[in-house]
Amino acid sequence: MFATTMSDQIPNPAAAVEVRGLKKSFHHVQALRGIDFVAASGRVTALLGPNGSGKTTAIKILMGLLRADAGSARLGGLDCFADRVPAKRLVGYVPDEPIYYEYLTGREVLQFVGEMHGLEPGEIAQRTGPLVTALDLAGALGDFAANYSRGMKKKLSLAAALLHAPPVLLLDEPANGLDPYAIVALRDLLRARAEAGASVLFSTHLLDQAERFCDDAIIIAAGQVVAAGPIAELKARLCAGGSLEDVFFKVTQKAEPAAT
């Protein structure tokens, strides 16, 4: 079990993820159809949905990588596109498929990320130690990151995302490629950040994992939010005595297909 040695409490408890009326189309396909949700500070929130439901599109808009057609997306009150530079300072981001420069080692990747966030070399080393130990990365830091396995690339991306102790974490399928030990470490790392006041939002297809990891769930189907709230409340209201998986199938099967 991982016990964080970082004491970074989130200075702004209002920092959170907020999406209102968000729309995005690609050609004639409506990927997002006016969605609304909040991922609160101090909570771990799962973003769930079938393939093509709009989860990754929403995360890319939150990261300022895509421009929404309508609506707003905010991190800590900052507009994710208009204010994307200061907004990104608030975020630790893990893409589904991390890509690294060919000639940077794992250690150099973390050094670069730390420097980009204004950390001093000694502070980078201090913060790196617990993260690479928890994720079992220490023995690979001297290797070129581009040659890592998928799971090792995901671990390095997690370490980089957590290095500056951000008030918001946006993670796209963070457990993909991880072994069971790394999944336990991931759970403990995310819980530690939430307990420090961070807003943690991550997409996943692993519903049993989401139920174990998360406080809240946002379920998207066909570009619409079909259920959202504390997981215990969703289960009690929609599938008494059932699981999050039962809730998921009940609400997503009723969703209308996206317009084409």
Helix/strand layout:
Elements: E1 17-26, E2 29-39, E3 43-48, H1 55-62, E4 70-75, E5 78-79, H2 84-89, E6 91-94, H3 106-116, H4 121-134, H5 150-162, E7 168-172, H6 180-195, E8 199-203, H7 207-213, E9 216-221, E10 224-230, H8 231-238, H9 244-252
Parallel strand pairs: 3-8, 3-9, 6-7, 7-8
Antiparallel strand pairs: 1-2, 1-4, 4-5, 9-10
Helix pairs in contact: 3-4, 3-5, 8-9
Rg on CA atoms, Å: 18 Å
The number of domains is 2
Strand order of the largest sheet: 6-7-8-3-9-10
CATH names the topology of the largest domain as Rossmann fold
Mean pLDDT over the full residue set: 89
Structural class: alpha/beta
Terminal CA distance reads: 47 Å
Task: List how many beta strands DSSP finds.
Answer: 10
Largest sheet: 6 strands, mixed
CATH superfamily of the largest domain: P-loop containing nucleotide triphosphate hydrolases
Helical content (DSSP H or I, runs of 4+): 25-40%
Keywords, separated by commas or semicolons:
disordered N terminus, 2 domains, 9 helices, 10 strands, four-stranded antiparallel β-sheet, alpha/beta, 260 residues, Rossmann fold
